[in-house]
Amino acid sequence: LELGNYIEQKNCSLVLEVINRYENNYFNTVRETSVFLEALDLDCVKMHLDTFHMNIEEASVCGAICRAGSLVRHVHFVDNTRAVPGMGCMALPDVVACLKAVGYEGFLGIEAIPGSDPEGEARSGARWACEAISLSKQAAFFFCWNVSVRHTPRNSFNHYSKDAIMFSLNGKTALITGSGRGIGLAIAEAMAHQGANIFLSD
Questions:
Q1: In degrees, to the nearest 5, what angle opens at C-alpha 144 toward C-alphas 140 and 147?
Q2: Active site annotation includes 17
Q3: For labelling, which of 30, 49, 170, 174 has a CA lying 20 to 30 Å from the CA of 142?
Q4: Looking at 17, 119, 121, 189, which residue is catalytic?
């Protein structure tokens, strides 16, 4: 509550990601997170959904989105295996329809694990997602490859990120944690390339 009040005073937002039980021991489901956020009752603290985690925890992904409703502030939009959209078996067009139904107008972040052709997959995933949502207001994406920096050079992250951020960040400010090296630094550089003012925190 104290942190939420501080964030509200600074005119910022905080999102709590709903993460599956194998990676976290709280906020595993939309229902659990919704109950907490409704009790907190702060407009600056909302929910971050991730279709990969939802596919593990929710009996109905679309039902969970409807339960979350206006609490949704950000969405990671990936297929069931953490691949880019269109490379798995999730009914992602239905997910988009549910997001529209609850009034979500934010970004869809594609946080995916790359295969043998990361750049090609990034472009394919973006094309597939744009077709799935018919270039609606949700057709603004950023990519965040969810991989080990030990196995992929940082300049590869930077290259893919710069190509994949499809919207201007001019006049925006971002504080990026874990940005002293690896993927965090690459994301920071990519966002700066699109015009954002960046604060690094490692």
A1: 160
A2: yes
A3: 30
A4: 17
Locate 41 and state its tokens: 């009752």
Ramachandran category for residue 135: left, alpha or beta (phi over 0 → left; psi -120 to 50 → alpha): left
Where residue 195 falls (left for φ over 0; alpha for ψ -120 to 50; beta otherwise) is: left
178 vs 104: CA distance, rounded Å: 28
pTM passes above 0.90: no
Q: What is the SS3 string spanning 8-60? A: HHCCCCEEEECCCCCCCCCCCCHHHHHHHHHHHCCCCEEEEEEHHHHHHHCCC
Contact 115, 108 (CB under 8 A): no
**Catalytic-labelled residue, pool 8, 23, 57, 111:** 111
**Alpha-carbon span 100 to 157, nearest angstrom:** 31
List the pLDDT tens digit at each of the 202 positions of the chain: 788 888 888 888 899 999 999 999 999 999 999 999 999 999 999 999 999 999 999 999 999 999 999 999 999 999 999 998 899 999 998 998 899 899 998 888 888 888 888 778 877 887 888 777 764 444 444 445 444 333 344 444 444 444 444 456 777 777 776 667 665 676 677 778 778 888 787 6
